[in-house]
Amino acid sequence: NLTDRLSQLVKTMRGQARITESNVQEMLREVRMALLEADVALPVVRDFIARVKDKALGQEVVGSLNPGQVLVSVVHKELAATMGEGVADINLAAQPPAVILMAGLQGAGKTTTTAKLAKHLIEKRKKKVLTVSADVYRPAAIEQLKTVTRQAGAEWFASTPEQKPHDIAVAAIDYAKRHYFDVLLVDTAGRLAIDEALMAEIRDLHGVLNPVETLFVVDAMQGQDAVNTAKAFKEALPLTGVILTKLDGDSRGGAALSVRQITGAPIKFAGVSEKIDGLEVFDAERHAGRVLGMGDIVALVEEVTKGVDLAAAEKLAGKLKSGSGFDLNDFLAQISQMKKMGGLSSLMDKLPAQMTAKAGAADMDNAERDMKRMEGILSAMTAKERANPKLLLDGKSKASRKKRIAQGAGVQVQEVNRVLNQYDQMAGMMKKMSGGGMMKMMKKLGG
Ligand code: GDP
Ligand code: MG
Question: How far apart are CA 327 and CA 364, in angstroms?
Fold first, then answer.
């Protein structure tokens, strides 16, 4: 309920200004769960949590955020940094044709992505692009590349299932050179699982082609299995980049973290639909939010600092210092402050699902309604009453005053009493805080 939330707010303000060994443990457990739920592989999660713990310890807690929220923000940043480190487009710094080798399991999306990349390089980089298929095991695979290459507006180099992948590579390079192609994209065969023959073949292709980019194409829906696949391909080939496909699916995309960690190669693009234009530059920041299953924590941080009125906070701090106390005007100001931040439910929307799961929608609605009703009751008081809560708490005419307020706010007298009780509790807690500490806290609140 609201009392809990307000006292929580105060506890937060007064208490933990840092993330410590003791408060970090429980929160990290939540993060660990979020990552596992997103299908990040366990060893990768362990490594990651250890790194986050190092970074989080001693981190200052800004504004009215609590340590949990700050930790999530640290996690978010670390996730984005781990998966991102700047934007990495396709490297074409090679004697033309710049060769791009596509590697990955069958069904990962290599053929589709080859065409998507061709389109990208034609449209965004103004390159003359040739594609070729070295997938000689399934005749349909060569035809498939032909079809999607047409859609991309690139040129397709014919190959047949009777040829050896090695010979196809040599012929394609020769053709690309003679026809002045800037880029040659080589689609390869994948198997349903890693096998040694496949790895030997792609290693051989790599040797002949000497590609400037060796891209590992991996299905985001693969989850935990992505780790083993990534390991096998990393051992076989010097990977220069990763393309994460099927991010339009409903996976949380934890594979991104695993694959990035295991291959050490940057995630360059993300596949976001079956269509030829369904390729996006990988946005690590945004993806970090998805992996954690949270709304935009950064927006929350900004909103919290924006919503706090520094002048009002300083006035309150000054009052406390001079001993004039926390009155009902201050209480009303606090409630308005929370409303300015977009209300409770808007704040909750910005927190990770894991953190808000306990507070159901009904709870939130109740809290919002409570807050509105409290505001109504406080507004029905006269300015004099708000400045002198004693008039309502133990004044001679307190009963008739409360009755008048209840009528004005359209509530029962018990409700007025409830608000006064809540105020009283809060004022008590406020009194316990030292003036100096409060001032510092308020300064911080103002950003
Ligand atoms: P390959 O065996 O690695 O060459 O994989 P394909 O390119 O043939 O793709 C396998 C399936 O995944 C096809 O049905 C594609 O349409 C589909 N696919 C590939 N990339 C994406 C993507 O980013 N999103 C969605 N939804 N489907 C994709
Ligand atoms: Mg294919």
Answer: 26
User: How is the beta sheet containing 155-157 ordered, strand by strand?
Assistant: 155-157, 129-133, 183-187, 98-103, 213-219, 241-245, 267-271, 279-281
Confidence at residue 6, expressed as pLDDT on a 0 to 100 scale: 31
Q: Name the pairing type of β-strands 129-133 and 98-103.
A: unpaired
| pLDDT tens-digit map of 252-281 | 888 899 999 999 999 999 999 999 999 999
Residue 214's alpha-carbon distances to 56, 103, 187, 262, in angstroms, are 36, 7, 11, 15
CA 273 to centroid of ligand 1, rounded, Å: 8
Which residues are placed with Cβ below 5 angstroms of ligand 2, an ion? 110-111, 141
Give kind and range of the element (H or E) at residue 255.
helix 255-263
Q: Are 146 and 139 in contact (CB under 8 A)?
A: no
Please check if 219 is assigned to a binding site: no
- Can you tell me the mean pLDDT for 383-410? 91
Residues 43-95 pLDDT 10s: 889 999 999 888 877 776 665 566 666 777 778 788 888 888 666 789 999 99
Q: What domains can you pick out in the chain, each with its CATH number?
A: 2-16+308-445 (1.10.260.30), 18-59+65-84+285-295 (1.20.120.140), 98-281 (3.40.50.300)
User: Which is nearest to 53 in space by CA: 82, 102, 20?
Assistant: 20
Which ligand 1 atom is the nearest neighbour of the CA of 217? Answer: 3
Instruction: Please state the atom number of ligand 1 nearest to the C-alpha of residue 135.
Output: 4
